[in-house]
Amino acid sequence: MALLLAASGCGDDRPAETAPEPEPTPSDTGVPTITALPVPEEPPTGTLIADMRQSSRDAAAGRMEVWIDNDTTEDVTPTRITYTDPRFRTALEGERLREIPAQSTRGFPLYLPARPTCGSSNDVPVVLDDPLGTITVEYAGATQTIQVEDSTDVAGRYTRARCLEMAIGDVATLSWSDQVTDGDPTRTPVGGEGVLELVLVPTGRPGADLTIDTVSGTPILSPVGTDAWRPGVSVSGTDGPLRVPLPLKPTRCDAHAFAESGGATAFKIGLTLGGEPGQITLRMTPEGAANAIAFARASCGMLETVDGGVEG
């Protein structure tokens, strides 16, 4: 008994081996386990969906683009695409026809007509939730006609602007001079200013008066000392030609501005025709645009003469 008691006493002096505590489970912490379930994909509608878009480059090229969403389970290769709209005298043919894979979207250019339908129906904006245009897609022996969503009113804005341009053309022709300053951008000093001229040539026919109220700058070219040019000049169809000088300078001098040149030489003109206000976009000719951009680059110090040449 003495030996047993001694052994027992020795055992009490040694620390007992402790087993590792179990990791807390969600039920121990009171935080439930939530398993994320995959979000079910919406099944295809089995039809084509179309919407109208227009980038600055599209606008410069005189076109808009209809984007077709192939919301079916089969690839579709259009053999013909036609856009029909009461604002245009004839249907517009889609170009760059190519396959639209299932569950994919492709854009197709539509070149805008020079003479849309003009009249009272174009005097007010289109109700955007009531599309006017339809697209007809022919493919694999099938034909499908669908409404085209036009949330930014591309077709309507073009029609109204073009109809206004045609009305202005009854009074005078508007254009830009092809030269800025002396016509040689390589002689423009860094920080130098230039002059762009707006040219008005009346038709010689009597009619409404035309007043040029404002001219806005572009991402590359801006007016000097003000936020917009305000010529305030008026002509009638029987007046003589008029040249309106507009002093200008570069808007900004970073390469990014020059890279995005879709609207670099497209100026918005606010005007009054026969007492009614309006606005058009007047673009420079390719030659004039090249000269204007070269002037801006020279003024920004981005042109260097190398062996008699010009390097950007």
Short summary of the structure?
Helix content is 18%, strand content 33%.
Can you describe this structure?
It is a single chain. It contains six helices and 17 strands. The protein is an alpha+beta fold. The chain has a seven-stranded mixed beta sheet. A hairpin with a 2-residue loop joins strand 16 and strand 17. The chain is globular and about 65 Å long. The N and C termini lie far apart (107 Å).
Helix and strand element order? HHEHEEEEEEHEEEEEEHEEHEE
SS element count, helices: 6
Give the helix proportion (percent range): 10-25%
Q: What is the overall shape? A: globular
The averaged pLDDT comes out at 83
Biggest sheet: strands, sense, closure?
7 strands, mixed
Radius of gyration: 34 Å
Features:
312 residues, 18% helix, 33% strand, 4-stranded antiparallel β-sheet, 6 helices, single chain, disordered C terminus, alpha+beta, 17 strands, 7-stranded mixed β-sheet, disordered N terminus
Task: Itemize the secondary structure elements and their pairings.
Blueprint: H1 2-13, H2 26-29, E1 47-53, H3 56-60, E2 63-71, E3 80-84, E4 92-93, E5 104-111, E6 134-139, E7 142-149, H4 154-169, E8 172-176, E9 194-202, E10 210-215, E11 221-223, E12 233-235, E13 242-250, H5 255-259, E14 266-273, E15 276-283, H6 286-299, E16 304-306, E17 309-311
Parallel strand pairs: 1-7
Antiparallel strand pairs: 1-2, 2-5, 3-4, 3-6, 6-7, 8-9, 9-13, 10-12, 10-14, 11-13, 14-15, 16-17
